[in-house]
Design goal:
The complex is a heterodimer of chains A (about 500) and B (about 270). Chain A is an alpha/beta fold and about 500 residues long. Chain A has helices at about 25-30, 50-55, 80-90, 185-195, 230-235, 265-270, 290-305, 320-330, 350-355, 360-370, 390-400, 405-410, 435-440, 445-470, 490-495, and strands at about 10-15, 35, 40, 60-65, 95, 110-115, 135, 145-150, 155, 165-170, 170-175, 200, 220-225, 240-245, 255, 280, 310-315, 335, 345, 380-385, 400-405, 485, 500. Chain A has 15 helices and 23 strands. Chain A starts with 9 loop residues before the first strand and ends with a strand. The chains are: A alpha/beta (about 500), B alpha/beta (about 270). At the A-B interface, helix 3, strand 5, helix 5 and helix 7 of A face helix 1 and strand 15 of B.
């Protein structure tokens, strides 16, 4: 019998008339697609359509095509389902994949449209008028105490009720991606970009490498169930601390960083031996209730000198009540990760079938916290497939304070969304620890590209605000009246708090 | 304006000096004010602190990093004692509650009574010695790295999930000073998901008590040579008789694989 029934998904086509026979493709491919015998010879079954070879071929003689091999039509038994069964029959394994949910569920952001001013209320030209994107992440007081400043004005009284907030120049931060899942050069690129853009990057659960210490005021340090790299120094260095409960790509399950990715540097940053699996259990074993969560929030505050502590959860069915509990437990922000959020590795069955859309989660949580009169007590960070500045504006209009981007930042660094992060062989040098691949990203180059993306989106946000006739992002926050839906059912509209277009 | 939270008053604890020891009266004081007073005393140079009348205040010693600092707690220490601690020695003359040594980096905790659940969770260095019984999920996900090897010794009995997900370090259970003479020395699921480190149990454990990821054997002479200095230190810290502790053979429990889930997946 053949080793596998699974036929290659792609075909690598080389125009040998144009080919320089230079071997660049052989050298660039992280998956080992090419052999070389006087000319490059591709093995189609290894190709993941990441376009590294295509991009670097000096002769532009390579193209990747979908394998046209026909399967007998069956809407029920699609070709990917048949292949999944063959794979599991061959291996007996849980199918592991990466990045965000690629399945054709409705994308609510693409059914929402923004308002604009016409005639009766003027729009604002952001090129000439001040347009404020500055956002403060953290708990806002119910009331403040002020006192005369002796010069005819007022100032905040000492202990006037304001918790520590983090100033962001724009309402976009980087989502947690651990050193281990991504390379150190990616972490450096994000940290440098965060500093330049006046925003934050997030360590994920993999510790803080000492090369990132200079950027620590722009780093959220994460505490997850495996507690990798967590110590008092780590907590005291971060600008804020984040308790990771769940992730949109894999709600309710833990993480396993395979031993192959635990090299010397990853091992020292995580403070675990080389070559052992880094296992993050599904739950925190000291959190079984909102009261337990409160205990960890305040343990982290006590250990860090009362830094802001946020809690990240996956958006799941009962997200409103859970978020309410998190805010009441004392979190300074709630980070909601929708079901399309990315991952470095997750079982396909979980990534593709668990969780709810971020758009719904934002609306439900914002409304719940408003109804309970505690919306001011925590910021809402929304993530889980924020793909453009339009998504940012819509997320904020639905009720988010800040959005977090992960995949978008990686795409800026060269990621082609080939969904192969879990293999550890990323040809673009992003989700790998192999030195010959990680050196493909120069942090200085990476920081510039990611900064460019954040700046471009920020300019676009200013354009959107101008069109809406408001001059601060705060005026858009939770302003669902400025959204209309098309093609959504009545119940979804009601849950989103959005009227259909025309109303 | 003085507020009362869950029966505790939000006031600074009464403080006095006895020689070079700073004495804090914790009676009825909310944990935030108590811990603030501890941190202030440490910043002012105190290296010996005695807390009297502790009645469940949380986070004592949390995140403290002074290596030569000694804290005595008289009474009952609250949850997350010595969590994220790096260096100090904390001695409790009484019982401790849940979360002792949570994610502790280094230092020493000695509890002269019993302790609660999730003791030593994610602990990566230092030592925790308990004279009596401990609760559920003790030693979960302890981990070692190079010279950092956490050690936990429990003198009494333990409940379920002892050493679950353990990734490194040494976890010892003696079953001696216990309130539960009729119970087995440990509950079920001992060492479930364990992939590093070693557990020593004084006496035997039944196969049904252990997770499927561990192998169980009698401790060899070489194992006992590793364990003996730990038990010497433990007995010295708690005033116990080493010969009595060593009077029974020990069982050694280690993981069968450092990668228990290495073959679980098929890559798409």
């Amino acid at each position: 019998m053949p080793a596998t029934f699974i036929q290659p998904e792609f075909r690598v086509k080389i125009d040998y008339d144009k080919c320089h026979k230079c071997g660049r493709c052989v050298q660039q491919c992280g998956w080992g697609v090419y052999d070389f015998n006087e000319r490059p010879i591709p093995h189609d079954e290894k190709c993941r359509a990441c376009h590294r070879c295509v991009t670097f071929c000096p002769a532009r003689c390579i193209t990747i095509e979908r394998n046209p091999l026909a399967y007998r039509d069956n809407e029920n038994w699609s070709a990917p389902l048949r292949k999944a069964v063959w794979k599991q029959a061959e291996t007996g394994g849980v199918l592991l994949t990466s990045m965000g949910n690629p399945q054709p569920y409705p994308r609510i952001f693409d059914h929402l449209l923004l308002d604009a001013c016409q005639v009766t209320n003027p729009s604002i030209d952001p090129l000439r008028e001040p347009m404020e994107l500055r956002t403060y992440l953290g708990r806002k007081p119910d009331a403040v105490t002020v006192e005369p400043d002796g010069q005819g004005g007022f100032r905040l009284a000492e202990g006037g009720g304001v918790s520590r907030n983090i100033e962001l120049a724009t309402p976009i931060i980087f989502s947690p991606m651990s050193y281990g899942s991504v390379s150190l050069n990616v972490h450096k690129s994000l940290a440098m970009a965060a500093e330049r853009c006046g925003i934050l990057m997030n360590t994920g659960e993999g510790g803080l490498h000492e090369d990132l210490y200079p950027y620590q005021d722009h780093v959220i340090v994460q505490v997850a169930s495996g507690r990798f790299g967590v110590g008092p120094e780590y907590l005291q260095r971060g600008a804020a601390i984040e308790i990771k409960i769940g992730q949109g790509a894999k709600p309710g399950i833990g993480g396993h960083l395979p031993g192959e990715k635990i090299n010397k540097e990853v091992s020292s940053t995580r403070m675990i031996p080389q070559g052992t699996d880094a296992i993050s259990p599904a739950p925190h074993h000291d959190i079984y209730s909102i009261e337990d969560l409160r205990q960890l929030i305040y343990a982290l505050k006590e250990a860090s000198g009362y830094k802001p502590v946020g809690v990240k959860i996956a958006a799941v069915h009962n997200v409103g009540a859970i978020a309410s509990g998190i805010v009441r437990a004392g979190a300074d922000y709630v980070y909601l990760d929708g079901f399309r959020g990315g991952t470095g590795a997750a079982p396909a069955v979980i990534r593709d079938h668990v969780g709810i859309p971020i758009e719904i989660a934002i609306a439900v949580v914002d409304q719940r916290l408003r109804d309970e009169g505690i919306r001011n007590q925590a910021s809402i960070v929304a993530a889980g497939s924020i793909r453009s500045s339009a998504d940012v504006a819509k997320a904020i209009a639905l009720g988010a304070d800040v959005v977090a981007i992960g995949t978008a930042a990686l795409v800026a660094l060269g990621c082609h969304v080939c969904q192969s992060c879990h293999t550890g062989s990323c040809s673009w040098g992003i989700t790998t620890q192999k030195p010959e691949l990680t050196r493909r990203i120069d942090p200085e180059w990476g920081a510039e590209r990611v900064s460019n993306l954040v700046h471009a989106w920020s300019h676009e946000l200013q354009e959107i605000l101008g069109a809406l006739g408001v001059n601060a992002i705060e005026s858009l926050r939770g302003s669902r009246e400025r959204l209309r839906s098309i093609g959504l059912d009545e119940q979804t509209n009601r849950i989103l708090g959005v009227k259909p277009a025309g109303m | 304006m003085q507020q009362v939270i869950e029966g505790y008053r939000q006031v600074a604890p009464a403080m006095r000096a006895e020689g070079d020891t700073v004495v804090l009266d914790a009676n009825g004081v909310y944990y935030q004010q108590l811990n603030e007073a501890i941190r202030s005393a440490v910043s002012a140079g105190a290296r010996n602190i005695r807390i009297e009348n502790a009645n469940g205040q949380r986070y004592i010693g949390a995140g403290l990093r002074a290596r030569d600092l000694r804290i005595e707690v008289h009474g009952t220490a609250g949850n997350d004692l010595a969590s994220f601690m790096d260096g100090p020695t904390v001695e409790v003359f009484g019982n401790a509650q849940d979360g002792v040594g949570n994610t502790m980096a280094s230092g020493k905790v000695v509890v002269h009574g019993d302790a609660g659940d999730v003791l030593g969770y994610g602990m990566r260095g230092g030592r925790v010695y308990v004279r009596g019984d401990v609760g559920y999920r003790v030693g979960i996900h302890m981990k070692a790295y190079e010279s950092l090897v956490p050690v936990v010794v429990c003198g009494g009995k333990a409940r379920d999930f002892f050493g679950e997900y353990m990734a490194g370090g040494v976890l010892v259970l003696l079953g001696m000073n216990t309130q539960f003479p009729g119970d087995p020395i440990a509950g079920s699921f001992l060492g479930t998901g364990m992939h590093g480190g070693v557990i020593y149990v004084r006496g035997d454990v039944e196969p049904w008590q252990c997770g499927k990821e561990v192998g169980v054997a009698e401790a060899s002479d070489a194992d006992m040579a590793e364990l003996r200095p730990i038990l010497e230190d433990y007995c010295a810290a708690l005033g116990l008789d080493l010969d009595e502790v060593l009077a029974q053979p020990f069982t050694r429990i280690v993981p069968v694989s450092h990668r228990p889930y290495g073959k679980l997946y098929a890559y798409l």
